[in-house]
Design brief:
single chain, alpha+beta, Nuclear Transport Factor 2, Chain: A, six-stranded mixed sheet, 4 helices, 6 strands, about 40% strand, globular
Length: about 140
């Protein structure tokens, strides 16, 4: 199921998913506002809790993708909602399917809350399942260094 039925936020998040699978920094650059915020409310040692600004987000993505530790293959939407009080905000429960040299095929359940304004991601809160992320990395912690 695509998220396009959620309007502009859903369409932008679909483009974000495609850019994530393709590891496309140019596409990501077009999707984030200059002052975007990317948050990881459930974080671990060695992993940021918050990235401020498009440049910081792109630097983080470039460094993460360069490690080659995981490769996303597809996103599966479990449920998706538009918030009643703010049409720019959507909530998406999803599973990321991918591969990792350490663990082979993996699934990573997570919940995203995205705020999209003027066709750009203004704020993204990524509630990733840390146990599943650790298993995908073949480790007991999320230290990516």
């Amino acid at each position: 199921m695509t998220l396009n039925y959620l309007g502009e936020p859903g369409r932008i998040l679909e483009l974000w998913r495609a850019a994530s699978i393709a590891r496309s920094l140019p596409a990501m650059r077009e999707l984030y506002s200059d002052d975007a915020i990317y948050e990881f409310p459930f974080t671990a040692a060695g992993f940021p809790a918050r990235l401020d600004g498009r440049a910081a987000i792109l630097d983080f993505l470039a460094a993460t993708w360069a490690t080659g530790l995981v490769s996303y293959k597809r996103y599966e939407t479990i449920a998706a909602y538009r918030t009643a009080d703010d049409p720019a905000v959507i909530i998406v429960e999803q599973t990321v399917h991918g591969t990792s040299p350490a663990s082979g095929v993996f699934t990573l359940p997570n919940l995203l809350i995205a705020e999209v304004t003027d066709n750009r991601i203004k704020r993204l809160r990524d509630y990733a399942n840390l146990v599943a992320a650790s298993q995908a990395l073949g480790t007991r912690n999320l230290n990516l260094s």
